Automatic annotation (TrEMBL), chains A, B:
Residues 38-477 form the Aminoacyl-transfer RNA synthetases class-II family profile domain. It comes from Comamonas flocculans. Gene3D superfamilies: Anticodon-binding domain, Bira Bifunctional Protein, Domain 2, YbaK/aminoacyl-tRNA synthetase-associated domain. SUPFAM superfamilies: Class II aaRS ABD-related (SSF52954), Class II aaRS and biotin synthetases (SSF55681), YbaK/ProRS associated domain (SSF55826). One of its GO terms (cellular component) is cytosol. This is Proline--tRNA ligase. Residues 235-251 have a biased composition (Low complexity). PROSITE patterns: AA_TRNA_LIGASE_II (PS50862). The gene is proS.
Amino acid sequence: MKASRFFISTLKEAPADAEIISHQLMVRAGLIKKLGAGIYNYMPLGLRVLRKVEAIVREEMDRAGAVECTMPVVQPAELWQETGRFEKMGPELLRIQDRHGRDFVVQPTSEEVVTDIARQELRSHRQLPRNFYQIQTKFRDERRPRFGLMRGREFIMKDAYSFDKSREAAQLSYQAMRAAYQRIFDRFGLRYRAVRADSGAIGGDLSEEFQVIAATGEDAIVYCPDSDYAANMEKAEAAAPAHPRPAASQPRTLTPTPGKSTCAQVADLLGLALTQTVKSLVLATDTLDDAGQVAGSKVWLLLLRGDHDMNEVKVSKVPGLDAGFRFATVAEIEEHFGARPGYLGPLNLRKSVTIVADREVALMADWVCGANQEDFHITGVNWGRDLPEPDLVADLRNVVEGDPSPDGKGLLAIERGIEIGHVFYLGTKYSRAMNATFLAEDGKPAFFEMGCYGIGITRLPAAAIEQNHDERGIIWPDAIAPFTVVLCPIGMDRSEAVRAAAEQLHADLLAQGVDVILDDRGERPGAMFADWELIGVPHRVVLSERGLKEGQVEYQHRRDTEATRMALGAVLPHLLQKINQG
Amino acid sequence: MKASRFFISTLKEAPADAEIISHQLMVRAGLIKKLGAGIYNYMPLGLRVLRKVEAIVREEMDRAGAVECTMPVVQPAELWQETGRFEKMGPELLRIQDRHGRDFVVQPTSEEVVTDIARQELRSHRQLPRNFYQIQTKFRDERRPRFGLMRGREFIMKDAYSFDKSREAAQLSYQAMRAAYQRIFDRFGLRYRAVRADSGAIGGDLSEEFQVIAATGEDAIVYCPDSDYAANMEKAEAAAPAHPRPAASQPRTLTPTPGKSTCAQVADLLGLALTQTVKSLVLATDTLDDAGQVAGSKVWLLLLRGDHDMNEVKVSKVPGLDAGFRFATVAEIEEHFGARPGYLGPLNLRKSVTIVADREVALMADWVCGANQEDFHITGVNWGRDLPEPDLVADLRNVVEGDPSPDGKGLLAIERGIEIGHVFYLGTKYSRAMNATFLAEDGKPAFFEMGCYGIGITRLPAAAIEQNHDERGIIWPDAIAPFTVVLCPIGMDRSEAVRAAAEQLHADLLAQGVDVILDDRGERPGAMFADWELIGVPHRVVLSERGLKEGQVEYQHRRDTEATRMALGAVLPHLLQKINQG
């Protein structure tokens, strides 16, 4: 490709709304161009990156036996009503009416449509397993689109859906997709982790996120440097402490803490470690009558160590809270505790509540909690002596750096990541809702066991940039660079020697199947180099008249701090070797 | 590819709503699957065809110097309001509101968005010419979607847009696109014509349609077998007759024609040729006052030969009618003619009207027309003798088979076609509306001269099928077949010889880059052959144990009536030769 026939358009300044580096660089390098909030044109350079991402995804999906199809962007609401998602999904589901007033949605995913295909097309267990995928435009009407392609409204997703005859077979399909995802992300040349994720109501461990490691990532990834344990924050288990509960050593003491309503303030005031304090969270559950009206409510007290944060996903699995919970109202709190939030605790309750202690709290001694009396806390509290053992003990909290790994093989570390893929076992959730069955080996209809598997095609380049950039611009991995090699001839319009050498090297690289661009725009060297460093093409060759007089050109990888001089004849094999390494 | 890893799903019966053969065959062969009215899933086989169409289009667009990008499916209404199309376009423009109540459209084309890109990105004449294209999902909310992908609502279109600094440069860009389109349609292996089309308000000849020839086509294509003249019906010129007007030979006679209100009925009653009759069409034009209210109207009488049909596009170019016209009301007709439609004519008018005669009518003698008196016509009417020469003479009619070609090189013929491409010079229509300018060589801002160029990616396979099918199914041209070669082994599960030969040939063809599918599904020969004839793979090789014992296999092209036996070793070179021919 010659730059004069392509479209290069770089900017010195990033737009004001570009908060993160990938957004800034994608706009500045001319990869994307904003059309509206969360809606972007994919400009020629950006589209080349997307096409390379798609090609790798497609190859590995095909290799894994998935079959590509394309489902419509605009989908009739009827199917979405069958699963209830038309009503249940919030305003992020973009709803449309056509000229006849019929309801449609712009697809955010395609579980309903693919299940509709399956229930018509897959009639027998002999047609299973089956995996359909598409690489297609999606839309989610985000309340606050931002970060460029990282959290856009219109985006491209690869979504695959597997259909199996049994849970065991579905697990094999899941593992095959998981392996394909590893090959895909390996080929992208990105540092990533596959982390366990919560699989919601379906349970089990069959849900993993693929996270590109980046300091700027929105997600916290928990992993063990000494083992292969990795999970997202929602899922990561805080292992039960191995030590026994220490014996009580302090008397229980009502202690004035005027105006100190947080654990940190209390610890500070009393000169205690924050780890000696216990925080109280008050939840409530409702029971409904046949008409769906609240018939009664129950109040729960959750106890966490002062330095720990509640993990909602874990709390939502506590028996009794697993059908849904809410935070208690101030009235409910005053009714049961006789005090306002900030001074609550499990002692001196006005009315009984169910007490759930985090595993860590259950093994504490001599701890501090609110006294259920304004401006007072109690110190030296001990289980058994001052109050009964907790009604329930459970893992309620987010893990923190240094917690023991749940596999017992070391201590947990935390880093930031950007989710770019997700593999998920769905079970029969959609097939039951849509009555999608096949004839099983016993001749009876059975519901499909399903899985779904997504990759954010347009998010991936943004994640790659968050991980790979410097102050001059993007540094693409070879596999997804818009061009692999850029040839920068200096004074090509004046020097026949430079022109001839550049054209020849361009032709030779093309003949070897290398994705090369020759910058024949006639820019001055400084501007030309700045453009390509911003755009982030990994391999650069500079050809100048002075160098060519000595038969030399300069090679520089985008990560190199200096160029390497080499013979013109040596640069082609050098590039080929470098590219194959990449 | 092995069929067991792919997805083949054929149907014996076409769905009831499939009126045309391409729709029937695409559904039966499992290329597409209906999701809603005019909305289809592209199933794996169909998607393979689309990908091949796209690849050819992409290669030739790139070769012609166009640069690919992708514009959003969901587009903010603001840009569409700048050109007025948001209000002007009918309900076929699918309008959406997002969660904040802002207006959007689902793109039917992208003139607005690409012009918005150009006015930001193309600042100097030095950046021109420039051609951006995309291959992307479109939506038109057709009132009556039908014919499968031929007239769907959601479809894929390649749309390209050229930007030039002058009308002359824009014409070069147009011609470059026209040449690219010819290469594209040549490569598809379809019989097609490039026909002149009307370019609307912009005028000139810079608008051509690419029509796939098919008896079932919706469009009439006019062409001259003895020259390269070709145009669509709207555009095709009815040349002025070369003969002079014959002398009057009959007396003007008021003739009773009770109840005969059509030319055909009158000719029949009077024993005259239909070509001797003249039909009267009454139009009206309105003048508006400053408030946009109708201030006055004018009535026009158009005269066409009895066997000719009015061509609205031509009428809309008659001076005085070119700002818009309507059919006259019955009240207007009675006011001017003193009679009801069916017995109207240019003689004995109650109130004067402007008379526009078709070129043919202007040269007629002794003709028949309505008498402006119920149940009477006048025969033997002659210009000059019985009424003044017409106010205007113009080409008002559709051409008919046998008309002289406007280039004077023979007679016109008419065939049916399916429009699958359109190249169009737009001028400054959009750049003016959106104030899209660049700095011209004189340092002043100038409006872009634009062109737009479309190819119906999803319509093309349907058109190909309308042109290429038989009673057994589709017959794909090699270039866009879902697979080029199918290997049909008989009894592969029983015969190791058959399996080994089929697997080897499959591997050899793949190594040669041939797109081959090996049918390893274990179907019986009859069902297997019927499937592949329905699907329309052009080259088939049958391997059987009996044949292989003699070292023979059978080759059959989808158009062949019989198979050809050949040595196993000869089939690979035979296929390669056949494919290169195709």
